[in-house]
Design brief:
Two copies of one chain form a homodimer. By secondary structure, chain A is α+β, with helices and mostly antiparallel strands. In chain A, about 35% of the residues lie in helices and about 15% in strands. Chain A has five domains: about 50 residues, no CATH class; about 100 residues, Uridine Diphospho-n-acetylenolpyruvylglucosamine Reductase, domain 2, CATH 3.30.43.10; about 120 residues, Uridine Diphospho-n-acetylenolpyruvylglucosamine Reductase, domain 3 (2-Layer Sandwich); about 120 residues, Alpha-Beta Plaits (2-Layer Sandwich); about 40 residues.
């Protein structure tokens, strides 16, 4: 194990302006979360690294971004776009074109650190409002200029990569306001480029800002919360960490307004309808391939943090944790908000990383909660105070029936502090050649173990790799599995091969290709095999309708082209 | 008021075989539910009817159905269809062609009683299985023969009227089995033609039939429960009386298999996915215009009737009932299953019809619950025992805060006995020239009063009409309004004009065209104006994809053609 004296030198400085690192670094440029000593010790042990391996940082990406690809658009086309949005809202420089072409996949980060730049747009455009978007889409449709939407750029599947050049349309620069709270209907009308924290803060402060009687919450808290937008949640079908109670992004959309080459429309404001297939739902998950979300009305919820009931448990086995979770989700006493179970590898690594003292390990083992068998479960309940008490009590009873030991609220409180900051560590690890990435899938209860074992077996068939799995979004019919893998690797091609092998393995073992990460261009190639050609043909028919000239986010998004 | 001695002579005999009445009569041919003496008294008073008006039944529809329209299909086409399904599963007789062309609209009933027959199919075909359906669709697509699906025929919007002739495809004759219960996933795989009671009974008896550990319920109980099918619920977007807790049909579908001219496919079995727009949802509500639902996997729920908590309340005003209901739906302590509020006219007529003694009226009035102001609320809570207690208690607290008086569980128990049988009265009333019909709409909380007042004002602008309204499906964002109107009228054209005027009024006052009755051919003409041409174009694009030759339920369904 490392000790304080040989702690690696982590970068503690915001990336230089214009550098690759300023694009790859997650989140706030001035915020850092370094791996703990326990983390470093684990890496050294798993990857047979010496202290020397942690002495020199590599491929830090501190060079200035140089693209050297003149925009392919004609100058009159660029002028026309500038006429629409104003000169200040058009950028042609190398840095902007690369920045607004990049998401947050490990693969992109790795490539950018190596100075490898994939497809970029010719021009970056920041529309000021819906009218700008309408004019841009109409003009680009006429000129057959591709348009790729960029909001916060947290995509983990090349969702904002302008595969065919054209325009990067940055929706978060101006279109980021909360327009209205409708307290009777408990809805909020919001522009799609609004970031999570600004949205949530405004809802929490609704009495002060909007004069409402009550405070509200958005109910949607993905790990990317601080660097993702409301519109991004909707068009990529995201899920927040509390989705078991509040629902996925799909569920909390009330109505939407889209600008498409086939026209602009707003879906109707009804709590339910039986007027044929629901256009409001058809648009969700279209990932910019049908058109551009310009306004969305979201369901909101009463903000009652004082009622939160936290819990955590240790289960003796993964089977017990899964069975108890299923029982909880099907028992009809209400639902927890956050609810997570970690598999044995994640549990044990987690305990080590968060500094469990040795005597606790001994104590747990003596009580029958053995390493590489025991599983951690944690979560909370939100809502009315008596409801949260009831649900938390029921969960405790079921946990106890399945042999779990209550750990109180400690683990959950600890997790809450780091719920959005884990991605910050990625930069530090990559500085020393260690890659961390995730893939996730939805699965029914009856296929959970096959998927878990199958994908783990594939990952573990490779030496010197860590694989941790949790389930974090629960339904009466099943859950998701979130596979985290960590490996010492520096070659983008080798990494790509491993990553795509895991996607293959998820599909072969009956998982969905994506539970809440969307499809983008990365998962696109699997779509037809996954959905079948008949269902893929439905998506393509919709695409042809909305976007007959294929200008909206073209080049593999959703596997459409 | 009428007394026992002059009670009208209600029909107490099953309709003769082959008669119009055997088609128009609701439900079990041998079951009757006659209007009470109070009902008759109310009709006499409202419609200025004398006892003589209740002495002669009119247009009873006891004549044999005569069509006199030879099938337009070629004999080799009919032979080919018979080759596919077997001769016994093909019918060309007048009666079958009319029966399987008819739904249960008041308008159709009135017309059939007058011997007016609208469009019928040339041939009635009863497929035995999915393979039959595939062959029929392929053949009809090749020959451009229209196909209109018929399941239980409870449509209230000409949804099963073969507007372009061709084939009536009767899905309920053979394709009506519960195929499998998956207890881990809590799902049931079922054929679409299975009727509500058979489905629910099988789920309740799952331990005996399928060897499951627990008993289950389908959670979907529309008023038409006894004469509607699982597939019908799904393709028309029905809602059950307990939808506030279990969800609408839309919500309880897990996956579906469809046969369309563009191919056969089954949507994937996942509790959630982020793999682009959800084909599983796109198909719901397609009302047979995209293809034919041949198998559906439904979410099921634990059957725990012993935990049910019933409640009923009297609110001093409609505003108080609405405000309390909104508070209940937004307070996040869980949801009631059945939950209904009646407006003042429905409340007062209901109290009279169910025989409230005069002293109760006096008592209520003295307590401030005045006639034509007070509003009845009733419902129940289902689920875990402690959950039902908690939710029922919370509802009681809120009701009390809004000035309501608890009436215990009596009204609810009384309602349960008649929950499926109200439509039986329609036949008796029509025998004496009285028509009863309903229209319904979804609405957000902020538009509820405008819709209620606007539609009521339109209906009441006509003399001698009763109009009762309730809300019976609740969401945090709003509810539905269900308008019941009763009038003495015999002319189909006059009735049509009134009925369509109410649809107009719903639309003008901002209600959805349908909350759970679907669209069919009746509401079709409003669809484009309601959704807007851009959204209607999306539905048409899907239609062209699935059914390029327009053979699936053509002729106005969903307003597509």
């Amino acid at each position: 194990m490392t000790t304080k004296k040989n702690r690696p030198e982590w970068v503690e400085k915001a990336p230089g302006p214009g550098t690759y690192r300023s694009i790859t670094k997650y989140g706030d440029p001035n915020h850092f979360k370094h791996p703990s000593d326990a983390w470093v010790g684990m890496m050294q042990q798993e990857f047979h690294m010496s202290e020397t391996d942690f002495s020199v940082r590599q491929h830090e990406g501190n060079e200035k971004v140089v693209l050297n690809r003149p925009p392919a658009l004609k100058s009159e086309q660029i002028e026309k776009l500038a006429d629409i949005v104003g000169k200040a809202n058009v950028a042609l420089d190398d840095y902007s074109r690369v920045k607004y072409a990049s998401g947050k996949t490990t693969e992109e980060m790795l490539e950018l650190r190596h100075g490898i730049i994939r497809e970029v747009a010719d021009v970056v455009v920041h529309p000021r409002d819906k009218q700008d978007v309408q004019k841009i889409v109409a003009y680009c449709d006429q000129e057959k200029i591709p348009v790729t939407v960029f909001a916060a750029g947290s995509s983990v599947n090349f969702g904002c990569r302008p595969a065919k050049g054209g325009v990067s349309l940055v929706i978060s620069t101006h279109m980021n306001k909360l327009l209205e709270i409708n307290e009777l209907n408990q809805t909020a009308r919001v522009q799609p480029g609004m970031y999570g924290p600004a949205y949530e803060d405004a809802l929490n402060q609704a009495p002060e800002i909007f004069g409402s009687k009550l405070r509200y919450t958005c109910g949607h808290f993905p790990q990317s919360f601080e660097y993702s937008t409301v519109g991004g949640w909707v068009v990529t079908l995201g899920s927040g960490q509390a989705s078991t109670y509040y629902g996925d992004a799909y569920d909390i959309v009330f109505s939407q307004e889209y600008v498409t080459p086939a026209g602009t429309f707003k879906t109707l404001d009804y709590p339910a309808t039986a007027t044929g297939p629901k256009i409001n739902d058809i648009m969700k998950g279209s990932e910019g391939t049908f058109g551009i979300l310009v306004e969305v009305t979201m369901k909101i919820f009463r903000f009652m943090p004082e009622n939160r009931a936290r819990f955590s448990f240790m289960y003796p086995t993964w089977e017990a944790a899964v069975n108890a979770s299923r029982e909880i989700m099907q028992s009809e006493f209400g639902k927890p908000a956050i609810y997570r179970i970690s598999d044995p590898e994640e549990t044990d690594r987690g305990l080590k990383l968060y500094g469990m003292p040795g005597f606790v390990d001994t104590f747990l083992s003596m009580r029958g909660f053995k390493p590489m068998q025991r599983c951690l479960c944690m979560g909370n309940v939100e809502g009315d105070r008596d409801y949260t008490k009831l649900v938390a009590g029921k969960i405790k009873n079921i946990a106890s029936r399945y042999g779990a030991m209550s750990l109180g609220s400690y683990a959950m409180r600890k997790w809450e502090h780091t719920r959005y900051t884990e991605p910050y560590m990625r930069e530090d690890l990559e500085d020393y050649g260690i890659l961390i990435d995730t893939l996730e899938a939805a699965v029914t209860w009856d296929n959970l173990h096959r998927l878990h074992q199958g994908v783990r077996a594939f990952i573990k068939s490779r030496p010197d790799i860590m694989c941790m799995t949790h389930a974090s979004h629960f339904y009466p019919q099943g859950t998701n599995l979130y596979f985290i893998f960590i490996i010492k690797m520096d070659d983008p091609d080798e990494f790509r091969k491993l990553h795509r092998g895991i996607v293959d393995s998820i599909m072969k073992n009956g998982g969905s290709l994506s539970h809440h990460h969307g499809v983008g261009r990365m998962i696109g190639p699997w779509m037809e095999k996954h959905l079948g050609k008949e269902q893929m043909a439905v998506l393509r028919a919709l695409k042809r309708h909305f976007d007959p000239r294929n200008i909206m986010n073209p080049g593999g998004q959703l596997g459409l082209d």
